[in-house]
């Protein structure tokens, strides 16, 4: 009885591995995100961020996969443009202090590992969700003077929609929340990927 159970368990594990291999389990991609940030729950108009996310995803079965990725991000300055006359616009960079701190520059990056579940809508499109942990590092500066320099562990959550063509190319739209200790970001993004 014990041997039959072990053989059944081994066969089902092998079946999942074979299915994942047969269905092209590897995926690489990039996603561009933009949104807002809060530092110690403080935010103000203009505390926007943009980030680029590169990832590798391994699909275990039709629902579950594991994803590892690297994100790099920075603040996005507002621009104030005025119509001087009918033919000319003058734009100035709005270099207000971030989060009501004496800082005007934010840079961050993190490495993340996440579990992802996807649920089929049609043959080529899915809704998905993922949760994961990350190792982050960020700093805020005023010119060359460092105002905040933090690193540590945090988490992320993302929900989105993805479409996959038969040739392996895919597109996705995602809403992402990232917790980096005192710094939180909420972004909306679009990405492209390739499954092989």
TrEMBL record:
<dbReference type="InterPro" id="IPR011250">
    <property type="entry name" value="OMP/PagP_B-barrel"/>
</dbReference>
<dbReference type="InterPro" id="IPR027385">
    <property type="entry name" value="Beta-barrel_OMP"/>
</dbReference>
<dbReference type="Pfam" id="PF13505">
    <property type="entry name" value="OMP_b-brl"/>
</dbReference>
<protein>
    <submittedName>
        <fullName>Porin family protein</fullName>
    </submittedName>
</protein>
<feature type="domain" description="Outer membrane protein beta-barrel">
    <location>
        <begin position="9"/>
        <end position="196"/>
    </location>
</feature>
<feature type="signal peptide">
    <location>
        <begin position="1"/>
        <end position="22"/>
    </location>
</feature>
<keyword id="KW-0732">Signal</keyword>
